[in-house]
Design goal:
Blueprint lengths: L1 E4 L3 H8 L10 H9 L3 E4 L10 E4 L14 H10 L8 E4 L7 H14 L8 E4 L18 E5 L2 H11 L6 E4 L2 H31 L4 H8 L24 H10 L5 H27 L8 E5 L14 H11 L3 E5 L25 H5 L3 E4 L8 H7 L3 E3 L14 E3 L1
Parallel strand pairs: 1-2, 3-4, 4-5, 6-7, 8-9, 8-10, 10-11, 11-12
Antiparallel strand pairs: 5-6
Helix pairs in contact: 3-4, 6-9, 9-10
Length: 404
């Protein structure tokens, strides 16, 4: 039996009525688990005393100074602690800097429960690994890295996860497990920055980066393909590396790769806006007053997750140039209120039809959802700026598509 604990009453109510609020998790799966008495959601922390293991997966954002904000972890720890019973296992899954579990979380759990980690209760870190939007990727077959506060903590965590996950990867400590997750995300951030930089360099030489990546991908060893784009998005890659940057300072260490990758990736939306201006210029149109459609609001294809999406940055920059900006996304019909871009809240996706698409001076493809009919786009839009190579293989008119 799994108890799903959340402080958001709307999510608790949705789940208990068998309704999923995440596109790639079906409502049927939730309902089936509820009906089989395998799952129930609650906002009542006192129910912690009923469980043998608590898995914490709360947000780990950056604050306005781009420093780690682990307040969600600490608040959760404070809420859990008074209800902890002897022998309970607590596992943190949120991405964070090394030391969060065995220093920060341990302290609040011990202070609030009056018990000792490693002797009275067990403590571990195991990073969440998920590939939203990839239907082939199932949680049970993704190997799970686990680090325990003590060898016994590790054994307890292995016993819990071993019931659901095929391959467990034990490491020597919570810190090693925390560092593993950061390596995985930094690896992506740095490699995406590399192809983003090469996109500009090769572009200036008249070489198409997408063609080059396709060719390089044929190498059967020593190469892994990454795709350029309009900037980094999602709740992980643009954020997590800076957790390490912050912690490294405590040790007098600098994370130059992370900083450089961040610099290159955050410059991408400006490059896309410049290319949009070039495309409009070729049509003798100014940015100011032009109608621009941003296609795709989700940060990656085929998902409805718009957190940290570079589409918002593009929309802000285009608007700042005086453009009349709208968006289309089949998975985000209306923009929710977010901390970062509250001014777009309540904006609706435009409709997908000839008249709607023809009313724009330029369409900027920010996310390449498979559900978008790119041939119709080619027929209806006069000018397209493509940041994802989405128009490859679609028949288009000369000078209609500008890669960016
Ligand atoms: N979603 C993913 O694909 C993914 C993949 C790898 C790692 N992660 C990491 O997992 C963590 C959580 O990410 P997410 O996408 O699930 O975040 P999220 O924003 O969906 O938040 C998860 C839930 O935590 C709840 N919450 C906030 N404070 C709480 C508290 N004090 N007590 C109980 N519940 C609380 C929120 O209401 C929300 O429903 C982050 O550290 C993220 O980096 C996520």
């Amino acid at each position: 039996m799994v108890l799903g604990l959340d402080i958001d009453p709307a999510k608790v109510a949705a789940l208990n009525s068998g309704r999923s609020y995440i596109k790639h998790i079906s409502s049927e799966a939730i309902l089936e688990a509820i009906n089989a008495d395998k799952f129930v959601a609650t906002a009542d922390f006192s129910r912690i005393k009923e469980v043998e293991a608590v898995i914490i997966c709360v947000p780990t954002p950056l604050n306005k100074n781009r420093e780690p904000d682990i307040s969600f972890i600490l608040d959760t720890g404070k809420s859990i602690a008074p209800h902890l019973t002897k022998g309970t296992l607590v596992v943190l899954e949120s991405t964070t800097y090394p030391g969060t579990t065995d220093e920060d979380l341990r302290e609040v759990l011990e202070a609030g429960s009056g018990m000792k980690a490693g002797t009275d209760f067990h403590l571990a870190f195991s990073p969440e690994r998920e590939d939203p939007g990839n239907a082939q990727s199932k949680v049970e077959v993704i190997p799970k890295v686990i680090g325990g506060y003590t060898p016994m903590c590790l054994e307890r965590a292995k016993a819990v996860y071993g019931r659901a996950i095929k391959t467990l990867v034990p490491v020597s400590s919570c810190r090693a497990a925390e560092a593993t997750k950061l390596l995985e995300n930094i690896f992506r951030s740095v490699n995406i920055a590399l192809v983003n930089e090469l996109k500009l360099v090769y572009g200036a030489m008249g070489i198409d980066i997408w063609e080059v990546i396709q060719a390089a991908k044929t190498k059967p060893f020593g190469f892994m393909a990454f795709s350029p784009g309009p900037g980094l998005g999602g709740h992980c890659i643009p954020i997590d590396p800076f957790y390490l940057t912050w912690k490294a300072r405590e040790y007098g260490q600098h994370t130059r790769f992370i900083e450089l990758a961040g610099e290159i990736n955050t410059a991408m939306p400006k490059y896309v806006v410049n290319r949009t201006a070039e495309a409009l210029n070729a049509l003798r149109k100014p940015m100011n007053g032009s109608r621009v459609l941003v296609l795709g609001l989700a940060y990656k294809p085929n998902v409805d997750d718009d957190r940290e999406s570079p589409s918002y940055v593009l929309m802000d920059l285009l608007k700042a140039q005086g453009s009349d900006v709208a968006y289309y996304d089949p998975y985000v019909p209306v923009i929710r209120l977010t901390r970062e871009h509250p001014h777009w809240a309540g904006t609706h996706s435009v409709s997908w039809d000839r008249a709607s698409l023809q009313s724009f001076d330029v369409v900027v493809i920010a996310t390449n959802h498979q559900a978008i009919h790119y041939q119709e786009l080619a027929e209806w839009a006069s000018c397209i700026v493509d940041t994802r190579n989405a128009m490859a293989g679609v028949s288009t008119k000369p000078r209609q598509v500008w890669k960016a």
